[in-house]
Amino acid sequence: MKNLIYIVFIFISLNAFLSCTEPYSLNSEYFEENMVIEATITNRLEKQQIKISKSYPLDSLTYQSIIMKLP
Description:
By secondary structure, the protein is an alpha+beta fold. It has a domain at 33-71. It contains one helix and three strands, in the order H-E-E-E. The protein has one helix at residues 2-18, and strands at residues 35-39, 48-54, 65-70. Strands 1-2-3 form a three-stranded antiparallel β-sheet, with no helix packed on it. A hairpin with an 8-residue loop joins strand 1 (35-39) and strand 2. The protein is flat, with a radius of gyration of 22 Å. The termini are far apart.
């Protein structure tokens, strides 16, 4: 059993070190801004939370979100 754990550990370690070596250049030239609404609304008697944000390009450093708590 220990040998199997060692083999799996070595395989995962080698895979982590030998994969993803080429950088990928991201093209965000054709970015479309969207409104994102995240919520889970239930019929329980507790505060419901709605998160409203805008999508942004991955190369952007700004992030804006509004969190609303309903009674």
